[in-house]
Amino acid sequence: MAEVLVLVDHVDGTPKKVSYELLTLARELGTPSAVVLGAGASAAAEKVAAYGAEKVYTCEAEELDAHLVGPKATVLAELVSSTSPAAVLLPSNAEGKEIAARLAVKTGSGLITDAVGLTADLTAEQPIFGGSVVVQSKVATGTPIITVRANSTAPSESPGAGTVEPVTATFSDADKAARIVEKVVEDKGGRPDLGDASVVVSGGRGVGAAEGFGVIEQLADALGAAVGASRAATDAGWYPHQHQVGQTGRTVSPQLYIAAGISGAIQHRAGMQTSKTIVAINKDPEAPIFELADFGLVGDLFTVVPQLTDEVGKRKG
Ligand SMILES: Cc1cc2nc3c(=O)[nH]c(=O)nc-3n(C[C@H](O)[C@H](O)[C@H](O)COP(=O)(O)OP(=O)(O)OC[C@H]3O[C@@H](n4cnc5c(N)ncnc54)[C@H](O)[C@@H]3O)c2cc1C
Fold first, then answer.
1. Most buried pick, 22, 62, 225, 260, via CB within 10 A?
2. What whole-number distance in Å separates Cα of residue 238 and Cα of residue 236?
3. How many domains does the chain have?
4. Which atom of ligand 1 is nearest to the CA of 229?
5. Which domain holds residue 96?
6. 224-250 pLDDT, tens per residue?
C-alpha cells in the first residue's frame, strides 16, 4: 500500500491529539508515515509509532522554527516528490491550512480543507458555505492534500515500526522571508485548546455579564472541556476574543458542544455545527439553536448549568 504522509502537530516532540487522529485515519487509507518537523522532532518517534506510523520522517533544521510556514511546506514538498504518497493529511488549524495551500501550489496538486470524514478512496466529507452545505469532494489532480478537522476520528493505538528517517531540505530566500521574533504561549488555565477539545461549553449574550461566565467555566472544568463564546459575548468584552466560535472566530468540531444562552445565529453555527452532539440551553423555546440541537433544555441557564455541573460531579464520584 502507498504511504500516506501525516504532518504531526507537536510541541517539542509531544504530539497533539489531532496528530494521533490523523494517523488513525491514515491507517484506513494506506501505510501511515509521520512527518515531524522542528525542534524535538525525534522525541516524537515512539509516540507516533504507537498510533501506526511505519516510518517517521524527521527534520530539525533551525529554519523550521525560526521562520513561518515556508520551510515546513518545502520539506513536505520534497517528501512528496521522493515518496509519491497516496495522500498528505494535515491538521485543519490555521498553520496546517497554510502549509497545505503552499504544498498544493508547490506540487501542482488539488487541496481539500476542513474535511470531517474520509473514505478509503479518499473521498472527503467537507462542510462548505459556512457549514450550511456538506459536500463529498475528491482531489482530481496530483497528490491529494487534505486538512482534517480535529475530532473527526477517535484516535486508537496500533503499533507501527516507527523507523526514523531524518530528512534534509534546501530552503529558498522566499521560504525565509518572514522571521519569528517572539513566541508567547497562551495561558489556558489548564483547559484544553478550543480547536482540539473533545467537549466545548460555550456561553453567549444570555450569560448577561463577564461574571456570568463563571457558571460556564465551572461546567467546562467538570467536563474537562474548553470554553467557547459567541461573538455577542466577546464583543461585549465578557470573554476573550480568542474563544469566539463562529464564522469570524474558531471552528470547532468536538464530540459534545454545549451552547448556553446562545440564539444560534448562522454565523455562530458556521463554527460549531459539525459537532457530533449538540446540547442547547436557552430560555426561549423558539431560539433557532434548537433546530440544530440533538438535546434541548428550555430554561434559565443560571438554574440549569449549575445543576448539570453538580450532576457531572456526582457521577465522577
Ligand atoms: C459578518 C458577521 C460575522 C459574525 N461572526 C460571528 C461569529 O464568528 N460568532 C458568533 O457567535 N457570532 C458572529 N456574528 C454575530 C451573530 O450574527 C450573532 O449576533 C451572535 O452570534 C449572537 O450571539 P448570541 O447568540 O450570544 O446572542 P443573542 O442572539 O442575543 O442570543 C442570546 C440568547 O440567549 C438567550 N438567553 C438570554 N438569557 C438567558 C438565560 N438566562 N438563560 C438561558 N438563555 C438565555 C436568549 O433567549 C437568546 O436566544 C457575526 C455577525 C456578522 C454580521
1. 22
2. 6
3. 2
4. 11
5. 3-166
6. 999 999 999 999 999 999 999 999 999
| Residue that the C-alpha cell 449538540 belongs to | 278
Q: Which residues line ligand 1 (CB under 6 A)?
A: 204-206, 230-233, 244-249, 261-263, 265, 267-268, 271, 281-284, 287, 300-302
Q: Which residues contact 88 (CB under 8 A, 6 or more apart)?
A: 4, 5, 6, 7, 76, 80, 100, 103, 143, 144, 145, 146
Grid cell locating 228? 467557547
Residue 27 lies in a domain: yes
Q: Which residue has the cell 507537536?
A: 10
Amino acid in position 193: D
**Residue range 253-274, pLDDT digits in tens:** 999 999 999 999 999 999 999 9
Give the amino acid at 266: I
CB 258 within 8 A of CB 219: yes
Are the C-beta atoms of 204 and 233 separated by less than 8 Å?
yes
* pLDDT tens column, 56-98: 999 999 999 999 999 999 999 999 999 999 999 999 999 999 9
* Nearest Cα residue to 69 out of 92, 101, 45, 46: 101
Instruction: Say how many Å lie between the CA of residue 40 and the centre of ligand 1.
Output: 42
Instruction: Clarify whether residues 205 and 154 are in a common domain.
Output: no
Q: DSSP character for 52?
A: T
- Residue with the nearest Cα to atom 50 of ligand 1? 267
Which CATH number covers residue 115? Answer: 3.40.50.620
Does 157 lie in the same domain as 229? no
Report pLDDT for 187. 74
As a whole number, mean pLDDT of residues 282-301 equals: 98
In a domain, 174, yes or no: no
209 shares a domain with 159: no
